[in-house]
Amino acid sequence: MTDTTTPKALWRRNLHILWFCSFIVGMAFSEIVPFLSLYVNSMGTFTKAQLTTYSGIVYAANFLVGAVTAPLWGMLADHTGRKLMLLRTSLGIAIAMGLMGLVTNVWQLVGLRALQGLFSGYIPTAQALIASQVPREHSGAALSTLMTGGTSGNLLGPVIGGVLAQFFSIRMTFFVTAGLLLITFLLSLFCVHEDFQPVKPEPATSANAPTPVSSTKRLLGSRLIFILLSSTMIVQFGNSSITPIISLYVKQLMHNVGPITIVSGIVVALPGISNILAAPRFGQYGDQHGSGKVLIAGYILGALVYFPQGFVTGVVMLGILRFLVGFADGALFPEIQTLLTKNAPASLTATVFSWNQSFYSVGSTLGAVIGGLIAAVFNYNAVFIFTALLMLSNFALIWWGAPEIRRNSPKTSQPK
């Protein structure tokens, strides 16, 4: 539950620790995700259509399982504490990642990606823990700052992964990733403090006594909450449709010549630089002037920078546009989560973040599979055009479906 009396030193200390842990997790994941398609390609002889399809399935397996299990973990976190969930996910994913470095065929990799999905959710759980402790008037800045931890890791990870893949092997990146996640587990165990007090339920004799199921129905029954969750799904749908094919797109633009993994890592990392610069400032601006204004601007910018990526002829221009993507992402995901925090019941903080993770995972699953199919049927550039159209569609959903966001961003309303 949100406790606005939480000592300032405590939530700030947890924010600093969880920022670093999120940084490690972001770095760990981004070391391997951009190169999954190249890893798949090393396991057999595939046609272009087979490679893009298999890459999409491998990428999506994690998120498909995560979409189903995330709400269950979130409800459990609201009753047992978020720190326990941090330990579960960091240790479980470390084991899954280590085993991925030992696979010999695509379907083994799919199975372990599914296992990873079962234990996923470190960063959303960290966000829920901070959201439950930070005073709401500072939630935008705090959550935006926390998100830069994962983003910073995403920035560095592809570069490290690219170097490891170039000079050692892609398999080596999985073992490095497992080691980093074990460090996260130890930091979470010994350094993160949570004085968790579960919400006391109303007497069982009360006809209106809430249950986890009824509370979740009430949460999802809020039009604003549901639109925000759907927005997470749509934005991530667009992002994940690109992720499995970005290294293949770079390979095509480089005409299959040169240090492809290193260049791919740099291109994947570029949005992280601008995201780090933008997200905290957008969060502070949203706290003062309305998160909805920042959100609307993010969709407009996203559409403007995704569309031309489908028409570039070299990696330099692609890199510039990917850098601009980071500004759009810095205005989208943090502000969606800030609006969720400000408009969800305090007792359901982890639940709403887990549902957000579930919608995120659905978007990741569908985006990876459909993006792979679009690339197979048309070409890689069609995926970027498709993503731009998704940004415009989501903009329309927010503009007409939740007009209170653009008129006067709500701050403390809760589902009725």
Automatic annotation (TrEMBL):
<dbReference type="InterPro" id="IPR036259">
    <property type="entry name" value="MFS_trans_sf"/>
</dbReference>
<feature type="transmembrane region" description="Helical">
    <location>
        <begin position="224"/>
        <end position="250"/>
    </location>
</feature>
<feature type="transmembrane region" description="Helical">
    <location>
        <begin position="89"/>
        <end position="110"/>
    </location>
</feature>
<dbReference type="GO" id="GO:0005886">
    <property type="term" value="C:plasma membrane"/>
</dbReference>
<feature type="domain" description="Major facilitator superfamily (MFS) profile">
    <location>
        <begin position="14"/>
        <end position="406"/>
    </location>
</feature>
<keyword id="KW-0812">Transmembrane</keyword>
<keyword id="KW-1003">Cell membrane</keyword>
<feature type="transmembrane region" description="Helical">
    <location>
        <begin position="256"/>
        <end position="278"/>
    </location>
</feature>
<feature type="transmembrane region" description="Helical">
    <location>
        <begin position="384"/>
        <end position="402"/>
    </location>
</feature>
<dbReference type="GO" id="GO:0022857">
    <property type="term" value="F:transmembrane transporter activity"/>
</dbReference>
<feature type="transmembrane region" description="Helical">
    <location>
        <begin position="17"/>
        <end position="37"/>
    </location>
</feature>
<feature type="transmembrane region" description="Helical">
    <location>
        <begin position="57"/>
        <end position="77"/>
    </location>
</feature>
<feature type="transmembrane region" description="Helical">
    <location>
        <begin position="172"/>
        <end position="192"/>
    </location>
</feature>
<feature type="transmembrane region" description="Helical">
    <location>
        <begin position="359"/>
        <end position="378"/>
    </location>
</feature>
<keyword id="KW-1133">Transmembrane helix</keyword>
<dbReference type="InterPro" id="IPR020846">
    <property type="entry name" value="MFS_dom"/>
</dbReference>
<dbReference type="Pfam" id="PF07690">
    <property type="entry name" value="MFS_1"/>
</dbReference>
<keyword id="KW-0813">Transport</keyword>
<dbReference type="InterPro" id="IPR011701">
    <property type="entry name" value="MFS"/>
</dbReference>
<protein>
    <submittedName>
        <fullName>MFS transporter</fullName>
    </submittedName>
</protein>
<keyword id="KW-0472">Membrane</keyword>
